[in-house]
Prior knowledge:
The chain has five helices and four strands, in the order ααβαβαβαβ. By secondary structure, the protein is of the alpha+beta class.
Amino acid sequence: MLGWLFVSPADRRLLGASRFRGPTPWVIAIMSFSIMIIAATGLALANTAGSLTRAIESRYAVEVPNGGQNLDALVATLKTAPGVTSVEAVPQSEMRRMLERWLGPAAQSADLPIPALINFQTTAVTEVTEMQARLPAIAPAARISPHRA
């Protein structure tokens, strides 16, 4: 009736007779080490995600649906806007190369309308709504979209 209180000889060998004998301390040490490695990896990934979030908070893209007829004027307007730190127009060839993943050879067709994209970065205090109001004078269909979205 009280047999469940007593440890069998096989279980006694597994647990060890003294404090630091047997596999139990080693299993605990290995598991503790593994948990510390996993925790350090989690903290590093969280830090990387936070850094990436802060890096793209101030990045935006201007999309011009009908292509780049006024692309140079848009780039010049963005460069002179207050708070804009960098402006880069995405070449049509790169846009077609990116679309080729989904469309295949049809992405190189001249009949496919490719929008013009301009990536720009601002300081934290820049009002993007003011820039959005300035763009329709150059390209009426142009719109600004944040990279964080």
